[in-house]
Design goal:
The complex is a heterodimer of chains A (112) and B (112). Chain A is mostly beta strands and 112 residues long. In chain A, a hairpin with a 2-residue loop joins strand 5 and strand 6. In chain A, the strands form 2 sheets. In chain A, strands 2, 4, 5, 6, 9, 10 and 11 form a 7-stranded mixed beta sheet that branches. Chain A is globular. Chain B is an all-beta fold and 112 residues long. Chain B has no helices and 11 strands. Chain B starts with a strand and ends with a strand. Classes of the chains: A mainly beta (112), B mainly beta (112). The interface between A and B is medium-sized, with 25 and 26 residues.
């Protein structure tokens, strides 16, 4: 079974631009969550999508948004990029509620 | 704020010794608990999950959960140099989805 696939692996963007990251979960997994990882803050929960609906949301500004498609693939969008948005963005795929999450390799975003 | 706290370390143990990693969480209603291992530059990979009070063993790894004390631990027996990594404790306090809160991780070094 293929794992969680995130694209692209690396991105360099300029302040003020927007970016879209993609995540394909493990086949059969309907829950997709997004996390931001920085050296100072660690892994922080952004949001979770299940059956095309946002089910949970973390404490991030509205510049961070996402969506999920009918095939469970998910995208995350960050608008008006700031230097502080530079981070590793991780997508996690879960089969059932309260079960283990499997992470993709992440997208390393650098904002200059 | 649903906090998860870990000692950041670094923790150093000699090869063959037992490594003990600890984690406390603030949300008493938390449902599920996970330990992830993250090598430098890689994404987190699941080691173990535990839902009920007590011990759960898987090979060289034992997870311990005490909900009354809001405490989770991971023991690594016969530590190997390949166990050198950052260990992340994750808690899912949600009963409506998959929303993990992570500790900042404990850096473990196993000395040959």
């Amino acid at each position: 079974k293929a794992g969680v696939t995130q694209t692209p692996r690396y991105l360099i963007k300029t302040r003020g631009q927007q970016v879209t990251l993609s995540c394909s979960p493990i086949s059969g997994h309907r829950s997709v969550s997004w996390y931001q990882q920085t050296p100072g803050q660690g892994l922080q929960f952004l949001f979770e999508y299940f059956s095309e609906t946002q089910r949970n949301k973390g404490n991030f500004p509205g510049r961070f948004s996402g969506r999920q498609f009918s095939n469970s693939r998910s995208e995350m969008n960050v608008s008006t990029l700031e230097l502080g948005d530079s981070a590793l963005y991780l997508c996690a795929s879960t089969e059932l509620q309260n079960t283990e999450a499997f992470f993709g390799q992440g997208t390393r975003l650098t904002v200059v | 704020q649903k906090e998860v706290e870990q000692n950041s370390g670094p923790l150093s143990v000699p090869e063959g010794a037992i490594a003990s990693l600890n984690c406390t969480y603030s949300d008493r209603g938390s449902q599920s608990f996970f330990w992830y291992r993250q090598y430098s530059g890689k994404s987190p990979e699941l080691i173990m999950f535990i839902y009920s009070n007590g011990d759960k063993e898987d090979g060289r790894f034992t997870a311990q959960l005490n909900k009354a004390s809001q405490y989770v631990s991971l023991l690594i027996r016969d530590s190997q140099p390949s166990d050198s990594a950052t260990y992340l404790c994750a808690v899912n306090p949600s009963n409506t989805g998959n929303q993990f809160y992570f500790g900042t991780g404990t850096s473990l070094t196993v000395i040959p």
